[in-house]
Amino acid sequence: MGASAVYDPLELLTNKGTRQPTFLSPIWNPMAGALAGFGAALFMNWGLRKPVFSGVQNHVLFTLIGGGAGYFLDNKRNEYLAKRDAVLRHYVELHPDDFPKTDRKKYGEVLESWVPVR
Amino acid sequence: MTAVFRVGLVRLVSRGSTASAPTTLLQAQTNALPAAFMQKCNISGKTMRGGPRCPKVAPYPYKTKKYNVLSSIFDKTTKRFDENSKVICVEGPIASGKTKFAKELAAELDMQYFPAVDLDLIFINSYGFDMRKLDPELPPSCRSFDIKDFCANPKHVQAAQFQIRMYMLRYSQYVDALQHILSTGQGVVTERSPFSDFVFMEAMFRQGYVSRGARSVYNDVRQNTIGELLKPHLVIYLDVPVDVVQKQIKARNIEHEVKSKALTDSYLSDLEVLYKQQYLKEIAGHAELLIYDWSAGGETEVVVEDIERINFEQHETDPHNKKMLDWRFPLESEWCEARIKYCNEKPELMSYFNVPRYDVPELLRSADDGKVWRDVWFNAPGMKFRPGYNADVGDTGLLTKTKLGLNEPF
């Protein structure tokens, strides 16, 4: 389906189209956090002159904390973006006069023709 | 006129209150002071007390349990103190009978005895492995150098490092002694102390065993560290003249001492002079001092009787008294802070030894030597990881072990 001939600001803020999240995008941050937590446990052991895989309960704990932190931050970010869109939508709904539907233009219609003068 | 009248009144009053007439004006005035100031609180021996010391509060397990700000809220410090909570340092020349005397004294006064330090504390690791066995693999600048090597070859380049290490060990042990007294209230008897250690460095310098630069580094290190400690309450000096010291050394017949090139008459007399003219003079301004002629040995009981006569309380009641100033903490919280400092922050105290002096070549090792030393030293049995974490010498349960010892070598 081609783009509609009019620009609707509300439509722009609402319709996300058919975009699907990739496989990695929802798990990337929790995974990075878990890895950082695991690495921190290794680093702590190394710094205290212990074998790096001693006290493995710490590794598990740190990994869980890191993964949890990644998941939490991901959620936090999504919430923030959703709220921002909601606020904008609400504003547009309250001020329909400021956001009229406009016709879609091409650049050719916006830009003047270029006439080089040498 | 008023003053004369007052003196007369004081005499009258005091005569009424005490059985014997005061002999001096000062005594008269002291007698007239309220009873609280007259309270005597002296060190007492087992014989005098008629039994062992009974601690008021159970000792704090300071070797296994941390003492930090949080614990200081629940566990105060002075409640464990009594009249025997004192630091006594036994000083004296080599082979003067300090060890026997200090042990007997500690037993009689029910105090904790801290033996003389030895470089074995560095060279024998937590698992009992003797690091001196690594010497053949190490470059000459990094090999072990202990009292035997010093006696055999006092002008060796490592002599200065040897003495700095001795000072460091004495310092470390003195911090342990302070931990003990602040956590248990039991007094301590130490053999020599970090305060008197400079005597050896100075004598070594005078004999040409160490360079001027090395002595200067030692003095910098000492200046940077010594002020952190609380000075002893009582110093006992066992005086033995040089010729008797030489005889005693022969009599006790320890091989490296008898054959020593270091323990010459001039070195020993330098030690004696420095002890008497610098150390004892300096410490007498702070601590009580007892000096005994110990050339033919002596009776510990006699010394104990003398100690029992010393009135330590006078230094606490009189704010103008210059002695034992660093032991006066007006608030309980300050006692607790001092205890936290020695019990919990010993690594910080030891870090003050890191004085950046790079101008004395015999105290430096090259980067290449350092690399070789590090590779050999930290691959020795029981050295790869911190104590308690070495599977190669039989530590088990490492997979789930997280416990760290208190103030352990790192």
UniProtKB/TrEMBL annotation, chain A:
GO biological process, one term: mitochondrial electron transport, NADH to ubiquinone
Chain ranges passing through the membrane: 27-48
InterPro entries hit by this protein: NDUC2
Presence of keyword Transport: yes
Main subcellular location: mitochondrion
Subcellular locations according to the entry: Mitochondrion inner membrane
Domain of life: Eukaryota
A single Gene Ontology CC term: mitochondrial inner membrane
Membrane topology: Single-pass membrane protein
Keyword vocabulary terms for this entry: Electron transport, Membrane, Mitochondrion, Mitochondrion inner membrane, Respiratory chain, Transmembrane, Transmembrane helix, Transport
Family affiliation: Belongs to the complex I NDUFC2 subunit family.
Role noted for this protein: Accessory subunit of the mitochondrial membrane respiratory chain NADH dehydrogenase (Complex I), that is believed not to be involved in catalysis. Complex I functions in the transfer of electrons from NADH to the respiratory chain. The immediate electron acceptor for the enzyme is believed to be ubiquinone.
Name assigned to this protein: NADH dehydrogenase [ubiquinone] 1 subunit C2
Organism: Drosophila hydei
Gene assigned in the entry: LOC111599157
From TrEMBL, chain B:
A biological process term (GO) from this entry: mitochondrial electron transport, NADH to ubiquinone
Domain Deoxynucleoside kinase: start-end pairs: 88-318
The entry's keywords: Electron transport, FAD, Flavoprotein, Mitochondrion, Respiratory chain, Transit peptide, Transport
GO cellular component terms attached to this protein's record: mitochondrial matrix
Cellular compartment(s): Mitochondrion matrix
Source organism superkingdom: Eukaryota
Cofactor: FAD
Positions of transmembrane segments: none
CDD domains: NDUO42 (cd02030)
InterPro entries per the UniProt record, alphabetical: Deoxyribonucleoside_kinase, DNK_dom, NDUFA10, P-loop_NTPase
Assigned protein family: Belongs to the complex I NDUFA10 subunit family.
Function as written in the Swiss-Prot or TrEMBL entry: Accessory subunit of the mitochondrial membrane respiratory chain NADH dehydrogenase (Complex I), that is believed not to be involved in catalysis. Complex I functions in the transfer of electrons from NADH to the respiratory chain. The immediate electron acceptor for the enzyme is believed to be ubiquinone.
Protein name (database record): NADH dehydrogenase [ubiquinone] 1 alpha subcomplex subunit 10, mitochondrial
Gene that produces this protein: LOC111597873
